[in-house]
Amino acid sequence: MNEKEDFEVTNHKHEIIACSSCERDLVDVWITRPDFPVLQALRASCPFCEDQSYIIDVQGGFHLGPCDGVAIASCDTDDSRYEDKDFYFITTSIGAKHDDSQD
Ligand SMILES: [Zn+2]
Fold it and tell me: What is the reported pTM?
């Protein structure tokens, strides 16, 4: 059984950040507040090949979750902005598989 936290999970959009090099799924971005008028750019490091993901654009408030086999070490906002958006850099490491979910 996989019990997730119970906060408004209905109809939220997911964006998956994948590595630009090995194309593994790295971070699951959950758009929890799509009406929030902020545009952000996200990029993640890849723990498998030491490369980085593509930059994805996210509109609204969001929650981050690691994809299978990935752990999120930190998420830093940079002072730098990217094409007029707030820029987040997510540092990842190799993590556990999702079989036992933990918070
Ligand atoms: Zn990679």
Answer: 0.79
Span from the CA of 7 to the centroid of ligand 1 (angstroms):
31
DSSP 59: E
Closest CA to 46 of 85, 93, 7: 93
Cα(86) to centroid of ligand 1, in Å?
A: 23
* Cβ-proximal residues to 63 (8 Å cutoff; 6+ apart), any chain: 29, 30, 32
Ligand 1 mean position to 52 CA, how many Å? 6
Return mean pLDDT, the chain: 85
Q: How far apart are CA 81 and CA 74, in angstroms?
A: 18
CA of 15 to the centre of ligand 1 (A): 17
Tokens linked to 37: 């008028």
pLDDT for 11-28, tens place per residue? 678 999 999 999 999 999
Distance 14 CA to ligand 1 centre (A): 20
For 55-81, the pLDDT digits (tens) are 999 999 999 999 999 999 999 987 667
